[in-house]
Amino acid sequence: MSSTLITGIGELVTCDGSGEDRLGIRPDAAVVAEDDRIVWIGRAAEAPAADRRVDLDGRALIPGFVDSHSHLVFDGDRAAEFAARMTGAAYDGGGIATSMTATRAASDGRLRELLGRRVTEMRAQGTTTVEIKSGYGLSVADEARALRIASEFTSETTFLGAHVVPPEWRHDRAGYLDLVTGEMLVSAGPHARWIDVFCEPASPYAFTGDEARRVLLAGREAGLELRVHGNQLGHGPGVQLAVELGAASVDHCTYLTDDDVDALAGARDSTVATLLPGVEFSTRSPYPDGRRLIDAGVRIALASDCNPGTCYSSSIPFMLALAVREMGLTPAEALYAATAGAARSLRRTDIGRIELGTRADLAVLDAPSYLHLCYRPGVPIARTLELPG
Ligand SMILES: N=CN[C@@H](CCC(=O)O)C(=O)O
Ligand SMILES: [Zn+2]
């Protein structure tokens, strides 16, 4: 056992749900971590002794960000696709095959190195938990390999064999679905906690509601929990399907009808709506109306969706700034969504908040208050707090 007393905290933002803004901000606070757990929170003047002390010199302390949606296992470059979109080209999911080809060609060592660099980049910006999806292998061996490597970095791994129908199967969609729900699930499933599907009738490459249902039910049968990519490119059945099947999260939610919003509000105890504003930024698309969701009582999360196609940014502070500027969230709502909200979308109670017994997954800001996360967009003020010992 090894304990650390954290003092000199300018503002302790616990995200424990208390207070009007749910941020549970504690003045004059100190925190003690023992190994990887929080064991004491209180007034600095009353802090107990510990093996060592870390003085934050007036900086704010927040829970580490929980990035609940990413696609980090890939090789290849699609910067030209981004440039084309900035001059008017539309995103339709077709570029996923480009990343698939490069990813299949990469060695295990190269994929591991690329993934390690991306996770390090996230930690350097305050992210302490990351969910990582497969989805650029799209063959039995390549999907299992992606998840095996991802599970070296996180326990939140997601099987996304149903990302798109790969080119060699486009003449036989039903055959590809048989593969995803059969042999591919058998070999990839043991390396995954979650199963996900890109349910998007507006894309010729992604999956319809009926196809997505089949994928999700097969995954559940295999012991995986459910997540859905839905309503990204247009109105569609993704949100309703996610709610009906009790998925932990439906992600994107860019195009929603009133019925979709009502369904999400009614499912607030089971299904979180995860918003990914970096995607709208990088695809020049309209932003989802985050304000409408919160006002309707929907639980939301914010995540990066870091991936080579629709958003190659791993910066949660950038997502917070976009959510505030473009989606109508307050800075407090945005921070809560990227910590406690995102933890909820992963059905985790041990991360995303600073409370007795939670993991000591912490981020420190080179600023006196969390407001600076949105007030100083693009400035790297957030980093993970590495505790000594
Ligand atoms: N929409 C589906 N999947 C990713 C994009 C993947 C890609 O284009 O490479 C997303 O979440 O936006
Ligand atoms: Zn995604």
The order of strands across the largest sheet is 10-11-12-13-14-15-16
The span between the termini is 9 Å
Rg value: 21 Å
Number of strands: 18
Q: What percentage of the residues does DSSP assign to strands (E)?
A: 15-25%
Low-confidence stretches: none
How helix-rich are the residues, as a percent range?
Answer: 25-40%
The number of distinct helices, counting runs of at least 4 residues, comes to 13
Overall number of domains? 2
CATH architecture field of the largest domain: Alpha-Beta Barrel
**Bound molecule types:** N-(iminomethyl)-L-glutamic acid, zinc ion
Query: What structural class should be given to the helix and strand makeup?
Result: alpha/beta
Largest sheet: 7 strands, parallel
Query: Which CATH C-level class of the largest domain is it?
Result: Alpha Beta
**Corresponding CATH superfamily of the largest domain:** Metal-dependent hydrolases
Describe the global form: globular
Output mean pLDDT: 98
The CATH topology of the largest domain is: TIM Barrel
Binding site for 4-imidazolone-5-propanoate: 78, 136, 163, 232, 310
Cofactor: Zn(2+); Fe(3+)
Domain Amidohydrolase-related: 61-367
Function: Catalyzes the hydrolytic cleavage of the carbon-nitrogen bond in imidazolone-5-propanoate to yield N-formimidoyl-L-glutamate. It is the third step in the universal histidine degradation pathway.
